[in-house]
Amino acid sequence: MAEIKNWSFWKAVLAEFVGMLLFIVFGLTAIIGQPTAGLSIISQEVKVSLAFALAIATLAQSLGHISGAHLNPAVTLGLLVSSQISFLRCICYILAQMLGAVTASAIVNSFVSGGSLGVNALSRVTAGQGVAIEFFGTLQLVLCVLAVTDKRRNDLQGSAPLAIGLSVGLGHLAAISLTGCGINPARSFGPAVIRKNMKNHWVYWVGPMCGGIAAALIYDFLQGSRVQNFRTRLNVLRNGAEEDDDAAVLATEDVRPGTSQWPKQ
User: Fold this and answer.
1) What is the CATH number of the domain that holds 150?
2) What is the distance between the alpha carbons of residues 32 and 116, in angstroms, rounded to a whole number?
3) pTM for this prediction
4) What tens digit of pLDDT does each residue of 67-104 get?
5) What residues make up the domain containing 142?
6) Distance between CA 213 and CA 216 in Å, rounded?
7) Measured between alpha carbons, how far is residue 88 from residues 3, 12, 74, 80 in Å?
8) Contact 101, 189 (CB under 8 A)
9) Residue 114 to residues 49, 83, 118, 146, 181, Cα–Cα distance (Å)
10) Radius of gyration of the chain (CA)
11) Residue 254 domain-assigned (yes or no)
12) What is a single cellular component term in the Gene Ontology annotation (predicted)?
């Protein structure tokens, strides 16, 4: 709970709100900006996929040094499971993300009188199949986030925000035709609340959140947990990561740190 007294913590929470607001504004505007009749279905899907991919890459680059730019409850939960953030930060980030998504959806809704406002819906798949699609789409995204922000690696090349943006684009290209591609519960929550359409909404929480948890467990199993000591792990969950945690892990594992492209939260 020590984080709550730190002004940088609240600036990070605000950054999550602002980042999610911008992310949803750009994404939903891309969805409603051109009537489907004016574009082929494939062209519209590619346009929307690119918009979400470019938005997340841009915002990760812009806000990563302030909050880590999670901008996704599934990513935040994955980092909690990986013992990189505290319970308090996890809860505050998710609340900020949801509020940002609702605010953005309300803003975009004022631009149009009809249409779906990007409310996610299942198409040609059952609810169970939708959960599986959302699960795997989010799994690859959170795996990418964990991998490109791992300070223990010394082989990282290129841009972490760009890699994460490409991962978001991949998820959309694969899932948008079947589920509308949530892979982000807050993104699904905002339009659903504004349009009061909660049909199958649970799919867009269960699939992504389980995918985020699974990604953290898989990555920690394959690469090894960043925090080996149970007491240290518990301290992180209670009070947040210390500035020297990464250096301590590197020292004990005798690994030379690579270039960090995901600043400290």
Assistant:
1) 1.20.1080.10
2) 8
3) 0.88
4) 999 999 999 999 999 989 999 999 999 999 999 999 99
5) 3-33+41-241
6) 5
7) 8, 12, 15, 10
8) yes
9) 22, 43, 11, 39, 21
10) 18
11) no
12) membrane
